[in-house]
């Protein structure tokens, strides 16, 4: 009875058929610096999550951030800390999972803002 290397052939075929999602490809292309930045953002958002208005106001005055709303102030604090930590100039885009359609407000001219 002849022996086959079916397992080897299946392994070879399986290697080529593994597909990555668009998100996985994007994360792989960004490299370790982006992963550190994302971890930094998540960690800072976690630290600010439980703070009350008075505590956030104190941080805003210390950091030179204009307080508008509690959530917006927390986003601005994280943006500023991220920019300082990673040497970025200007505004830093901080992903926010907490914004929902209920947080959006329509202005008089039909424009929707958060």
Structural class: mainly alpha
Number of helices: 5
Let me know the number of strands. Answer: 2
Subunit organisation of the chains: single chain
Rounded mean pLDDT score: 75
Which word captures the global form? rod-shaped
Work out the radius of gyration. 23 Å
Spell out the key features of this protein.
114 residues; mainly alpha; two-stranded antiparallel ribbon; 5 helices; 4% strand; rod-shaped
Question: Could you give the topology of this structure?
Answer:
Layout: H1 6-17, H2 22-30, H3 32-49, H4 53-63, H5 70-86, E1 105-106, E2 112-113
Antiparallel strand pairs: 1-2
Helix pairs in contact: 3-5, 4-5
Task: Summarize the structure in words.
With 114 residues, the protein is mainly α. It has a domain at 49-89. It is 59% helix and 4% strand. It contains 5 helices and 2 strands, in the order αααααββ. It has helices spanning 6-17, 22-30, 32-49, 53-63, 70-86, and strands at residues 105-106, 112-113. A two-stranded antiparallel sheet has the order 1-2. A hairpin with a 5-residue loop joins strand 1 (105-106) and strand 2. Helix 3 runs antiparallel to helix 5 (70-86) and helix 4 (53-63) packs across helix 5 (70-86). The termini are far apart. Residues 90-104 have low confidence and may be disordered.
């Amino acid at each position: 009875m002849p022996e086959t290397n079916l397992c080897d052939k299946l392994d070879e075929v399986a290697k080529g058929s593994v597909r990555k999602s668009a998100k996985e490809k994007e994360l792989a292309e960004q490299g370790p610096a982006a992963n550190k930045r994302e971890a930094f953002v998540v960690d800072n958002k976690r630290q600010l999550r439980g703070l009350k208005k008075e505590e956030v106001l104190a941080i805003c005055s210390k950091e030179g951030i204009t307080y508008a709303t509690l959530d917006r102030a927390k986003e601005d604090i994280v943006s500023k800390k991220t920019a300082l930590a990673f040497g970025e100039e200007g505004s830093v885009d901080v992903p926010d999972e907490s914004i929902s359609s209920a947080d959006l407000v329509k202005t008089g001219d039909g424009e929707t803002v958060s």
